[in-house]
Amino acid sequence: METTRQKYGRVILHVDCNSFFASCEIARDPSLKEKAVVVAGDPKERKGVVLAANYIAKQRFGIYTTMPLWEAKKRCPHLVILKPDFHLYRDTSEKVFQFLKTFTPVLEPASIDEGYLDITDGYSSRSSPLDIAEQIQKGLLKTLHIPVSIGIAPNKFLAKMASDMKKPLGITVLRKRDVPKILWPLPVQQMHGVGDKTAKKLNGIGIFTIGELAKAETAILQNLLGITGVRLKERANGIDPRPVDPEAGEKWKSIGNSTTLSRNVTEERVLLEVLRDLAQSVSKRMKQKHVVSSTIQIMIRYSNFQTITRSKTWENPVQEAEEIFQRAVYLLKRHWNGNPVRLLGITAIDVFDKREAVKQLDLFHFEEDAKKEALQNTIEHLQQKFGDSIIQKGYEFFRR
């Protein structure tokens, strides 16, 4: 007998919570439902920034994430401003995913507020994918008071694109045959997986729409973006074979790297060089997975094979190599006993999606991070073009 999968192919849902942080606050205090609500770093500070806004704030007053709080207040004098409560958001997220698991065990959380469900074997003529999507949307609204938008498609990429098409409380079906008509006219920067840097690179070779990306020469894209270019072209054509993987989140709970030294080392200067290289490696992998971590761990193995691991959790999560390095140095100086070292390692513990890392930034920190990111982008571009050694720390240059 022919299975549903054989007959119709895969059916994937992407469930995306609408204005999640603000929705959690409104669910806790229903009196806020008809008001413009934002979550901000410090409501008492003029220099704070908006971390999240509900749809009334967005659509009626044009308030958006990262907008300076003073400007948001100017646009909406009666704006409700709340400090972030990450314990509430994580607790609500767990309840959302527990609810989704009642529909299928094939569930992959993508971040704190979104996930993919493979319902290929979970529906029938009596319960269509659209029926299931409606049950999920109505059920989450009724039980947790969390509004969601849902995309229904034959793969993860199209499901994600579909869920973005109607917010809040939208349900959108996107079939592969719809791609030329619906997706191809869109600007390439609206494509999931294309960030600002990638969009600029694509624009630089004359690719401005998803359709132009879909029709571009594979060799040119591979030369420009590596394997990422090939994957983006496939997705622009509606192709995405990635399975919904329930274990995907668990695979990246920690990201680390270690190295055995060529000799027993007692010089701190050499150990710091090794830590810097390890931090670069860990940072690169974290960026590939779009994750950050607040907890850094180092491993020290001495020449007698005694091994210790020490970690510390900081307030703000990190991803950049320099910040990981500085935290590893702190741990090394605090815990190394001076004996000869044979192996060093750095691990980022309990990594999580970068979008969860909405630091309680004020405007000063926001601007500072933006400047750092611009500098880091320049450095990475130079290293990709000329090699990692093109940029060196001053003391390294003079030491050579």
UniProtKB/TrEMBL annotation:
PROSITE patterns: UMUC (PS50173). The record marks 21 as: Substrate discrimination. The keyword DNA repair applies. Its main location: cytoplasm. Poorly processive, error-prone DNA polymerase involved in untargeted mutagenesis. Copies undamaged DNA at stalled replication forks, which arise in vivo from mismatched or misaligned primer ends. These misaligned primers can be extended by PolIV. Exhibits no 3'-5' exonuclease (proofreading) activity. May be involved in translesional synthesis, in conjunction with the beta clamp from PolIII. NCBIfam families: PRK01810.1, PRK02406.1. This is DNA polymerase IV. It comes from Parageobacillus thermoglucosidasius (Geobacillus thermoglucosidasius).
